[in-house]
Amino acid sequence: MSRNRPARRVSATPLAVLAISLAMLLAGGSSDAPAASAPATDGALRPTIRQRALAPRIAELLEQQHYSRHRIDDDVSLQVFDRLLQMLDGQHNYFTAADIDSFSAQRMRFDDMIHSGALEPAFDIFTLFEQRNRERIQYAISLLDKEPQWDLKESFEFDREKVNWAKSTAELDDIWRRRVKNDALSLKLTGKEWPEISDTLRKRYERVLTRVNQIKRDEVFETIMNAFASVADPHTNYFSPVNTEENRIQMSLSYEGIGASLLLQDDYVTISGLIPGGPAAVAAAASSTSALQVNDRILAVGQGTSGPFTEVIGWRLEDVVQLIRGKNGTVVRLQILPAGAAPGGNERVVSLSRGRVTLENQAAKKQRRTVTMNGRQLSIGIINVPGFYEDVQARAANDADYRSTTRDVKRLINELKAEGPLDGLLLDLRGDGGGFLPEAQGLTGLFIDRGPVVQLKGTDGRIEVLDDPEAGLAYDGPLAVLVDRTSASASEIFAGAIQDYRRGLILGQTTFGKGTVQNQVRLDDWRGQPINGQINLTVGKFYRVTGESTQHHGVEPDIALPSYIGKDEIGESSLEHALPWDRIQPARFNALSLPENLVKTLADAEKTRAANDPDFRWLVESVATAEKNRTNRVLSLNLAERQQERESLDAARLALENERRKLLQAQTAPIVDPVPGRRALEPVKAIADIKAEDQPDVVLTHAVAITADLALRVAPVRNVSAGSPRS
Prior knowledge:
The chain is α+β, with helices and mostly antiparallel strands and 727 residues long. The protein has helices at 49-64, 74-89, 97-103, 110-116, 120-142, 169-188, 194-213, 217-232, 241-252, 279-286, 317-324, 392-396, 405-419, 437-445, 490-500, 598-611, 614-630, 639-666, 698-713, and strands at residues 155-157, 237-239, 254-257, 260-265, 268-274, 297-303, 309-311, 331-337, 348-353, 355-358, 365-373, 376-384, 424-428, 452-458, 463-467, 479-483, 505-508, 516-522, 534-543, 559-560, 634-636. The protein folds into four domains: 15-232, no CATH class; 254-358, Pdz3 Domain (Roll); 362-607, 2-enoyl-CoA Hydratase, Chain A, domain 1, CATH 3.90.226; 610-706, no CATH class. The strands form five sheets. Strands 4, 5, 6, 7, 8 and 9 form a six-stranded antiparallel sheet that branches. Strands 11-12-13-16-17-20 form a six-stranded mixed sheet, with helices on both faces. Helix 17 packs antiparallel against helix 18 (639-666). The protein is globular. The two termini are 27 Å apart.
């Protein structure tokens, strides 16, 4: 794949989450046998022959093709050792100090392990983690035989990242006793009594224990390789074969299957939804009696029209997914236990032909809002861009209808124009973690006529300037871009270019600060199937046309808006081993001219709107409360104290909500046009009466108002050369 195609920013997932999370999707397993030189006679997980051969190749890529070209030596070995422990037990809930001491002999051997492929010592560390995991969960289950004492004055420290390892099993027992008591207390505060609490937690912990017992070698290998990769930089990652396919799906928004969303409930893989346009949804529309329905449970999966059924009760979710997915046009049969039916009765078989499924809910979407300002009605288009995606396989196959962010946004702009006058356009990139770099180029090109978009610096130090790939403008009117702290990578390239060209205003929060480029390296290009997975390797850094890097710094908004996302806790600057910030020479480009003091004028107008908008004041106070609660790392385990804390928080939230509603009702001329129907809300008497759909997206509403204000003050940019290529 081209070096200009960085993958979405991703991070390795700590497998310790298995012990506390029920929703985690695990990676796929391998059918390879363990290495002959390391028989797993003790039941421990061992690296496969394939993995032993793959590790040195990954080491070679990290040393020779990574941007830093760092050598994996004893110093790196120490860092990898610490990183692996952090990934497995970052909260210090499983290992004891004695366990850590027992690993000390391996601290200087990780460089030798990856170069030779002799990964057994690293697998042994994981095996002990798995054992400690089981012990902790089994101990947690044993505590459910007796109801806790709710009147004790004690607390639970839920953030243990910076505390010392437990000195003994007895100390760990006390940590977990408090942990289980906190879980139980959370349920008791909802009105449940101990028998129901105990039963609920027992089932929860037993399901977690089942997941722990289903960990496979590919997951262990992926974790160990990511310990090495993350020491190179936070955005270099190894993906197992199954996660390679999941990454491809996320980047292309398509896959071949039946189009059903699945979740794991107890031991059953359950239908949680049908994706519109997919084979399952089409069949359900044609026949409600013989098709899949939400909450149906899958008992077994059969391949083709007559292949034998494989029972999947108790299987891992992702393993069942792999059985159901398959080549377009092939048949899969599902043995179903209908929703609500008791086990053993009313079973039926659903036969479906697999097809190409498009994840429309993850694609760009549009809406339109009307704003009254200065006696004028202005129509503002909003396009939400959740990612910079492209169906690479469809494009390579010369599919004229292949999906991509640029193509979708261009289509949505044309649809907005066709629907009626479009006075301004707002692109919402909040939560957009990035994706393919060419899509950032293409999207920028929809709004500038021609010129450089971004600069790349590779491992050899050479600078490459990437231009707008297509002359002309898809939209020449007033433009604003809304970002937040989780807008990263390709989002920052686009926002930075729009800001540098003065083509539009950047609104919201300082972006993530990821200024690096990744290349997707398939580790088995010579094979028909991705049995070795892939590594997303950092091979360069990108720079704005001004020569400034977004690394650590991000893109600063022209007009700031509040956010619940804490800047200090999220962002490149908070990640270990992040590459440093620097700058290079600017490219040649021509920025547009804006009216004098335009940004200040718009910011002052927004400040006035915000001061007079009850929704905005509600948001600011809510953010302040969330920030205050975020600093609290300790919870009381005394029932009376927790009840008082919750009642106090609920009362404060209720008062804040009702004050908002009261002020909105009193407004005769709203400062900011509301979402339809929101201002008729009556006061509420309880937290339960506050519906999620009644909570306003204040940031979006104010971003729309700023865009409308911008539209009153600037003219379209048609026939203006937005830039010139570098000579």
